[in-house]
């Protein structure tokens, strides 16, 4: 085969590589999220009787199916209900009121947006949407620069359900109290999947992505275990695809344990920031040995271990760096000495 020769359909290990893309939406009901989907549907149901719906905040770690569950609800409503319009907007991408308004215009198919102010456009949107009931799904809601637009939606759209999706469990507490009291949302947590559940989800994806027998039980177990540590199904999809590409580059049609191992090593390189300094390395190793302790407890161990005067401020800065690099997770807890954070490792580095 030439350097860039393509694999023919018969040569490729993949039946449908797209099925491993994180943005791929599998058909049918979502496994292990039936209750969550029912909960979301119940918030929306009053709209079908032309009554006002319930608002909802959905929270949970990354890669636990929050977006997927909402996309499914959107698809189902669009298939079965003409009376309810559904708007899905990712507020990380559309992070200001004006960008959200333009996106809503696009979704209601209104094209004459030039030379019109946000207020004018908003009036047009409201008129159109108020002919029906509406579900607004605002994903990555905590990433928006401003969510003032929510006031207008709450006040001026008559029959709606607003769904806000976030990773940050405490985001609701940070909202302006006036907004909170108008929104009055229910809240729904998406808990992380168990290792067994991840394995089952993977198996379903594999049936779409690979020909039979391409992945051994050992490899699935290894990948499910690794993904369980990050709680993120995207990790599993990444590892499966990487391992398969490695096998394919050797013209093999079966993923071996070695391919899986190599893919896992690649994941660590990819997730690890370019360089951790000496203190960050040390803190990470302490966290690895003392999972689920609070920042104060880890700081005490760190101080004793390094046997020197370490400043708490510098320590907290390092902790922040590690969180940003996705190596640890911080969860707010209320202790005797006030608010503190529990530190959980996200992976073995
Ligand atoms: N129960 C499931 N069955 C099949 N695939 C799933 C399931 N849960 C999650 N996935 C897949 O895992 C990936 C991550 O899911 P999703 O994007 O919904 O996560 P999320 O909770 O929205 O994460 P984030 O907070 O990072 O946005 C997607 O590719 C999704 O299709
Ligand atoms: Mg998401």
Descriptive overview:
The protein has 3 domains: 34-189, Rossmann fold; 194-271, Helicase, Ruva Protein, domain 3 (Orthogonal Bundle), CATH 1.10.8.60; 278-345, Arc Repressor Mutant, subunit A (Orthogonal Bundle). It is globular and about 60 Å long. The protein contains 14 helices and 8 strands. 49% of the residues lie in helices and 13% in strands. The strands form 2 sheets. It has a 5-stranded parallel beta sheet, with helices on both faces. Strands 6-8-7 form a 3-stranded antiparallel beta sheet. It has helices at residues 34-48, 66-80, 97-107, 118-129, 149-156, 171-174, 177-183, 195-209, 217-230, 233-249, 257-271, 278-289, 295-306, 312-324, and strands at residues 56-59, 84-90, 133-139, 160-166, 186-189, 293-294, 328-335, 338-345. It starts with 33 loop residues before the first helix and ends with a strand. Helix 1 runs parallel beside helix 2 (66-80), helix 10 crosses helix 11 (257-271) and helix 12 (278-289) packs across helix 14. Helix 5 (149-156) links the parallel strand 3 and strand 4.
